[in-house]
């Protein structure tokens, strides 16, 4: 397969977020060789991704991830327990301004 990059936004979701609508976005910009994660239009994580030349999604779970192992060798599993309004994959990388505009759309926030 090729190089693999993983990046986390450890402070991205807090207990106080439970029960609230959250706009989450991840951007992979191969031209800038950077990855970004946003929460409600605000940047959480920016990471250099020098080793990735092409992005291919093979097997994916929406609302779950395969976890990571902590120091006690326990594998975390996180399942989505809620609703997802939209899931969109764009061909081109969006800017932070474009992400913020999507996150703050009033019609989404009112539903």
Provide structural commentary:
With 111 residues, the chain is α+β, with helices and mostly antiparallel strands. It contains two helices and five strands; from the N terminus they run βββββαα. The strands form two sheets. The protein has a three-stranded antiparallel sheet. Strands 4-5 form a two-stranded antiparallel sheet. The longest helix has 8 residues. It starts with 23 loop residues before the first strand and ends with a helix. 6% of the residues are buried.
Strand order of the largest sheet: 1-2-3
Q: Percent of residues in helical segments?
A: 10-25%
Helix-strand string: EEEEEHH
As residue ranges, the low-confidence spans are none
What count of helical segments does DSSP give? Answer: 2
Strand residue content:
15-25%
User: Whole-Å distance between the termini?
Assistant: 41 Å
| Major sheet characteristics | 3 strands, antiparallel
Mean pLDDT: 77
Structural class, judged by helices and strands? alpha+beta
Task: Report the count of strand segments.
Answer: 5
Query: What Rg do the Cα atoms give?
Result: 15 Å
Shape, principal axes of CA atoms? globular
Compact overview of the structure:
With 111 residues, this protein is of the alpha+beta class.
Give short descriptive properties of this protein:
alpha+beta, two-stranded antiparallel ribbon, globular, 3-stranded antiparallel sheet, 21% strand, 12% helix, 111 residues
Could you outline the blueprint of secondary structure elements for this entry?
Blueprint: E1 24-29, E2 34-39, E3 42-48, E4 64-65, E5 78-79, H1 96-103, H2 106-110
Antiparallel strand pairs: 1-2, 2-3, 4-5
């Amino acid at each position: 397969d090729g190089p693999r990059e993983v990046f986390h936004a450890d402070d991205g979701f807090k207990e106080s977020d439970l029960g609230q609508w959250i706009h989450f976005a991840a951007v992979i910009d191969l031209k800038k060789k950077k990855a970004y994660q946003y929460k409600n239009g605000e940047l959480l994580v920016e990471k250099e991704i020098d080793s990735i030349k092409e992005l291919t999604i093979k097997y994916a779970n929406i609302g779950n991830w395969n976890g990571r192992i902590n120091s006690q060798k326990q594998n975390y599993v996180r399942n989505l327990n809620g609703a997802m309004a939209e899931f969109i994959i764009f061909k081109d990388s969006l800017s932070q301004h474009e992400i913020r505009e999507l996150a703050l759309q009033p019609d989404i926030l009112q539903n």
